[in-house]
Amino acid sequence: MEEPTGEVPGQPETAPHDEVDRIVAAWRQERPDLDLEPLTVFSRISRLARHLDLARRRAFARRELETWEFDVLSALRRAGEPYQLSPGALVQQTLVTSGTMTNRIDRLANRGFVERHRSPDDRRGVQVELTPEGLKRVDAAMADLLAVEAAILTTLSKEDRPHLAALLRTLATQFEE
User: Domain-by-domain residue ranges, the chain?
Assistant: First the structure.
């Protein structure tokens, strides 16, 4: 059996090769009947997502936050002053169950990052509000996150970044409601 070369048809020999190129070359060797183009795209997205997740976790850890904590705090921050949302709105924005959100709000309240208030419009309703400490923490974590993500993007030209964002948006919209 011939050893896969790692060369990718359509790419010059000087083009950089990555692990996905090696995987595709091996599959091409073993199964030349398959169209491997989806693998060339989605394996890279999957691998990049894993690296990005680790980079984000490190950025949040610098501010002593877990990823889920940042998700909730940033949803409140994006709401604008007075940085309040109902638990239902937080569920919708963070894509978790209401039971999970109740637990998360409790834990964030125990850390002093959020407070619960009765809704002025509905005496049975609750609003979750970002505290000054929560605001300070999420703002610092956001700045750290953007620095990490900007560093990752340095391998792309400024001109390529909007193009990549548009292509990813096109792929992602099929899953949006």
Answer: 18-61, 67-141
